Amino acid sequence: MDCLSLFRSLLLSLVILISLQLIFFLCGSSSAVVGVEKTNAAVIVKDLVHDICVQTSNPVLCDNTLRPRRIPMPGNFSKLAEIVLLYTSNRASTNRMDIDSYLDNETDPNMRKQLFVCADCYDLVNEDMFKCEEALSQARFVDLFNYAVIAKGNEVQCELGFAASGAVEPPQLVTTSKLFQDYADILRVIAKTAAGT
Question: Which NCBIfam families does the record match to this protein (predicted)?
Answer without folding.
Answer: PME_inhib
